Structures are given as structure tokens and as C-alpha cells.
């Protein structure tokens, strides 16, 4: 109804507040998706920081309940929910989540305590979103060292979370390098486009500037339409 302009988006936010005690992954996934759309729209306004605060308020109770480590008797959906919630809190700048993500990332990079597969994406996206050039360099090094394609793809999807304009350009250049398989280039550019307002502008300019190469690479295949969509 809000998307159709029938009711105010404020009503949607009020309804979302009622879900703070919700345990179900599918429900949180939907809330996360809708909040992501609102964040994208509000990134062009003065309300961007307010929507981040709203995300932190909505997701922190479930984040505290889940914690960082699996509990006995948990199912597959609990692991998915933990990854979703921690990633959302980390991206939104939740202080405790950011600090713990940085600590675990450091241990992971140093080989002291390797991150479980379901925590890697939320940790990577959190440290990148609030990271600098050394964070990006470390992530690119992890990409180079990864022997499984699944891990390479996981890293490629989150690189666009980096915030500084010159680092965004570095990620876009990386997307077309030989380090990235042609079929995965779109994921890197898409990650940049979805990462921030600056990322969207930079990704769109990059696609236009490199249109000939991208078009020749994908011809009329589904990847070119996916690229335009993102």
C-alpha cells in the first residue's frame, strides 16, 4: 500500500517496530529487504542517518539474543538469521557489532581463529563498510589466496561496501581484471551499485565508460540485463 502511495511509509515503519520479538528467519529476511529499499531511497535525502539508527534499533534486540556463536540445538535457519542480523547491524554502524567484527576479522586474517562460512559475509561487509585502504588490500589478498571459488565469490559480492570514492574506483577496476572471472564481474559492479549513493553513481559511470568492453563480453546474454538492472 505504501509503495502504491495509498498510505504513508511512516505506517510501514510503525508496523516494522512490532516485529522486534520475531524469531523467524523468513520474516526478518523480508523486513531486511524492505528496509534496504527504504535505505536506498533515503540515501538521497537528509534522513539517511535516521534510517540507519532505525535499523540499529529494530535489529539489535534479535542480534543480542542470537549472539555471535551457535547455540546447541540450533537449526540451519538460525545460522542464516545470525548472518543476516549481524550483517545488517554491522552495515548500519552498530558499535558493538562493528568492534566484534573487527576483532574476529583480525583473528581470521592472522589465522588464529578462522571464521565459520556463515559469519564471513557479515564480518567482511562490516569491516569494509567502515574500513580504509588497508582493509580493502587485506580483502583483495584474501581473494587472491582463496582456493575455493565459493570464497572468491563471497568476497567479490561484498567489496562494494567500501565507502571512499578512490577505493570504490579501485574495486570497479578490479571487477574487469583477470583476477575476476567474466561471469562474476557483474557481481562486483552490482555490489558497488548497492553499497552506497557514491557507489551507485560511480558504478553507473563505470558501466557507461566501459560499455563497449562489457557489451562485447556478454553480448545479448542474461548477464548484461542483470548488470543494467543493478
Automatic annotation (TrEMBL):
GO terms assigned for molecular function: metalloaminopeptidase activity; peptide binding; zinc ion binding
Domain of life: Eukaryota
Domain ERAP1-like C-terminal per the UniProt entry, residue ranges: 2-229
Signal peptide positions (record): none
GO biological process: peptide catabolic process; proteolysis
Cellular component aspect of the GO annotation: cytoplasm; extracellular space; membrane
Keywords: Aminopeptidase, Hydrolase, Protease
Protein family per UniProt: Belongs to the peptidase M1 family.
Protein known as: PSA aminopeptidase
Organism this protein belongs to: Furnarius figulus
Amino acid at each position: 500500500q505504501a509503495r502504491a502511495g495509498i498510505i504513508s511509509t511512516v505506517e510501514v515503519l510503525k508496523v516494522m517496530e512490532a516485529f522486534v520479538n520475531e524469531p523467524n528467519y523468513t520474516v526478518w529476511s523480508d523486513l531486511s529487504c524492505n528496509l534496504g529499499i527504504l535505505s536506498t531511497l533515503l540515501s538521497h535525502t537528509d534522513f539517511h542517518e535516521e534510517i540507519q539508527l532505525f535499523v540499529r534499533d529494530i535489529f539489535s534486540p534479535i542480534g543480542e539474543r542470537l549472539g555471535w556463536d551457535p547455540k546447541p540445538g540450533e537449526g540451519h535457519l538460525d545460522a542464516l538469521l545470525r548472518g543476516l542480523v549481524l550483517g545488517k547491524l554491522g552495515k548500519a554502524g552498530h558499535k558493538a557489532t562493528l568492534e566484534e567484527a573487527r576483532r574476529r576479522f583480525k583473528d581470521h586474517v592472522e589465522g588464529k581463529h578462522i571464521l565459520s562460512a556463515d559469519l564471513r559475509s557479515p564480518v567482511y561487509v562490516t569491516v569494509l563498510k567502515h574500513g580504509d585502504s588497508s582493509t580493502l588490500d587485506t580483502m583483495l589478498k584474501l581473494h587472491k589466496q582463496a582456493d575455493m571459488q565459493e570464497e572468491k565469490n563471497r568476497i567479490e559480492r561484498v567489496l562494494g561496501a567500501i565507502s571512499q570514492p578512490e577505493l570504490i574506483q579501485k574495486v570497479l577496476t578490479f571487477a574487469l581484471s583477470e583476477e575476476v572471472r567474466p561471469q562474476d564481474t557483474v557481481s562486483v559492479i552490482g555490489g558497488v551499485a548497492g553499497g552506497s549513493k557514491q557507489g551507485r553513481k560511480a558504478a553507473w559511470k563505470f558501466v557507461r565508460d566501459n560499455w563497449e568492453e562489457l557489451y562485447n563480453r556478454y553480448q545479448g546474454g542474461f548477464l548484461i540485463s542483470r548488470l543494467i538492472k543493478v
